[in-house]
Specification:
With 186 residues, the protein is an alpha+beta fold. It has helices at residues 28-51, 53-57, 61-89, 130-135, 159-185; strands at 10-15, 91-95, 98-106, 109-116, 120-126, 137-144, 151-157.
């Protein structure tokens, strides 16, 4: 029995668009928090310089302040780096055979889900709000019969087009699997 191999082609390489949603990606609220936290040591320095100038002149207190400020800034940079890494490494790839979703959950945690296209039962696109409507981005929900393999593409560009293409690809893949099953029976 000879198995037919088909070429797999990448149709979409989907990433979450930055600065769109408050919950799913690296965005403006995290950047604003980062800038606010970065300003705290400067405000503390001006407070100490005006109200407690002796602390800044001490042989032990000044190096301790520099040490704690350095630790504080390193913590902020680690926070920013973690958020950026999670945003940057969240990727979904749609090919002619399957969908692969790689979701970065932290610096050292990742989930990879794979879904064969012929198993898709429903694809729904969702565009909510004024800015998503104007800039054409939204969510795409891919549903299967299984409860644990549903995939969501968050904040992708042109979700309606992606939904239509996924349905078309799923239909073609289903026909190919049916033809393969019929040929194997014969």
């Amino acid at each position: 029995m000879k198995k037919s191999r088909r070429k797999v082609k990448v149709f979409y390489y989907l990433k979450t668009r930055p600065c769109n949603n408050l919950y799913y990606n690296f965005n403006l609220p995290q950047l604003a928090l980062f800038l606010l936290l970065a300003a705290i040591p400067f405000l503390g320095y001006f407070f100490l310089a005006n109200y407690l100038p002796n602390i800044l002149e001490g042989a032990i207190s000044y190096p301790l302040l520099v040490l704690f400020t350095s630790i504080f800034y390193l913590s902020i940079i680690l926070f920013l780096y973690t958020e950026f890494t999670v945003f940057y490494l969240d990727v979904s790839v749609v090919t002619t055979a399957r969908i692969v979703e790689m979701e970065q959950l932290g610096l050292f945690s990742r989930t990879i889900s794979e879904l064969e296209l012929f198993r898709i039962q429903d694809v729904t696109s969702e565009v909510n709000g004024f800015f998503p409507s104007i800039f054409h981005y939204g969510n795409v929900f891919v549903k299967t019969a299984s409860e644990n393999t549903n995939i969501i593409f968050h904040n992708v560009k042109n979700p309606e087009t992606i939904r239509e293409e996924l349905l078309k690809l799923a239909h073609e893949d289903r026909k190919l699997h049916m033809a393969t099953a019929i040929n194997e029976e014969a």
